From TrEMBL:
Biological classification of the source: Bacteria, Pseudomonadati, Pseudomonadota, Alphaproteobacteria, Sneathiellales
Cross-referenced Gene3D superfamilies: P-loop containing nucleotide triphosphate hydrolases
Record Pfam families: AAA_13 (PF13166)
This protein's record includes keyword Disulfide bond: no
Stored InterPro entries: CR006_AAA, P-loop_NTPase
Parts forming coiled coils: 351-378
Keyword annotations of the record: Coiled coil
Name of the molecule in the record: AAA family ATPase
Native species: Sneathiella litorea
Keyword Coiled coil carried by entry: yes
Gene Ontology biological-process entries: DNA synthesis involved in DNA repair; double-strand break repair
Domain Protein CR006 P-loop, residue spans: 348-492
Amino acid sequence: MDDYEIVIENCNSIDTANIGVKKGCLNIKFGPNGLGKSTIAKAIVSQARDDGTLADLVPFKSRGKADAAQPKVDGIGDISSALVFDEAYVNLFAFQQDEVVKNSFDIFIKTPEYDTAMADIEKLFDGIKKAFADRPEIEQTTKDLKDLRDAFGKPNKDGSIAKSSKVLKAFGSGNKIDNIPDALMPFEMFVKSANPSKWIGWQIKGKEFLELGDTCPYCATELPKPEQKETALAVAKEYDATAISHLNNLKEVIERLGKYFSDGCQENLAKITKAKTELTAPQKSFLSDLKNSIEALIQQLDGLRTISFFSLRDVDEIDKKMPLFKIDLGMIDKLDSDQTRAVTDPINAQLDKLIEQVGNLKGQINKHKAKIKKTIEENQDSINGFLKSAGYKYSVQIISEPDSYKMKLIHEDLSEFVDSASAHLSYGEKNAFALVLFMHQVISEDPDIVILDDPISSFDKNKKFAIIHQLFRRKGSLRDRTTLMLTHDIEPAIDVVKGMAHKFKDPKPSATFLSCRQGEVKETLITSDDIRTFAKICKDILSENIDDVIKAIYLRRHYEILDNVGLEYNLLASLFKGRAVPTLATATENRDMTAQEKTDAETKIKTLIPSFAYDALVQQVGDDEVMKAKFLGTDVGYEKIQLFRIIRGKHQDDIISKFINESYHIENEYVMQLNPHKFESVPEYVVEECSRLLQDA
């Protein structure tokens, strides 16, 4: 298979970049900050997705210019999909209230194999599903049954219907819509209107104004007779707007459901809904029984409508469970009617056919459960293994939900699941979780290329290796996938190319160094031999034909690494400070060197730099023009900033000072590193700023 030779042009600060990507393996691109690594990622992703966002990368220098060259990416070949892990992904990562990550079911369980198995199981339920589909009125009937059931409310402790229920509020004191009190017959037209509760509510609101005098508050006419006023006031006494609303709504529901009730049930319901007086104990008992019958039918209809793998996965003996799904109207005789049987008989018939295949059903469900269990265990072990090796006190557990699965978060000091993970996880923990879960998302979505934009720089060394190992070495990882890791952290390259190279084989990762000058990004292959200790790098550089001051810079660093801060180190330190008389600074003294000490130090340095002469070199260090010439004479950024530091020391630009000073001190160097003569690690803007400041001096 051919690898990719990607050419990126006119994207943000990049004029041109040539990036090689090996198919089916990890490609590490190491380079300093500010080089344009994120732009490289965005450009490749924009071109792969072909979503029009490539135009967003137009360089500022080209904006508003009609003839300016546009962003362009060539060489991505068959790459048409990409997933990117970057800071934006972490920030948008959806830690949910009750699960570690949104859609954990889709990421960890719902594989193509899962979908195939689920489809095969669902085919066995097609007959029952069709029985429901052929009778669309079942949906409205079920809704009406639920409305009527809900009207009974929560029962009293003895099982009787509560007075606060909609049913008793509507019918408990008699039906005063059909049985209007004689005193209110003048209002019959309003009471028996389509929406009597609205009129009753309006009427009751005027009650307090009726009590103010003998003038009608509605029409402002006089009420000459006391009985006329009493009649108007009686509406509030006899009627409750809410109860009337319940009564009307329930009457409509009962009328729609009437054909599903047995003849005897319909007769009893008619007596109750048309009763003139308070309901009797037997009538209330009848209603309680009716509620139980309705509940039973609803449960069976819902159970059959939603029958699936999920409703049967926790059933130990499916063959014994299946007959219990059958709707037996003989046991709920209040709903035993021809219309009800017209609904339930086809469903029962299809259930009988399914029962004939129960052995096949049972086998497929158990097989599917076993695969899901294995998938869950593998995912849990993978993530928890990483969390443990990285030193985190968290673990995850994937648990079953009514119609799905969810990943829950556990802390070793807490016996319960951790709710709202985002409120408890630190930034580093969120980043680690997001990165490992991103890996599983990649496995789930299977993109053509995976891009990791500076994914692990914020972690300590132990966690960095744990993450790299998790991402690229474990079973079910990003191994064998075309992956581009852009980073300013050399440690991943050290681990996969040299330190732990024996663990990263088949396929062997590729590591290259990115550098940028004048808008052109180039890459240089990093081999195992390129990753060396500073001692070896120093030895190589001292053997080259270069300036003695530059050699002295490397040698001083070499002594510092070895913690050899004796005479030789102090002589070189004095040289860079331009001291005609070198000094000796130790933990116990700070004084000028004696002539003999200077000679002894110079002699030892000459074994490594034969032409070293302190007096001659200190004169060069003290001459700014000579030092500027040395600065211009080297193309190595590391040497330029060390020479600049000697010439100028601290200056007003805090950012540049910080970079120079940190690159100068050993505590900010890696034990293993790249030779600066081959790999330009100093950002271009730092070198340019040093050059500008020297020119202005």
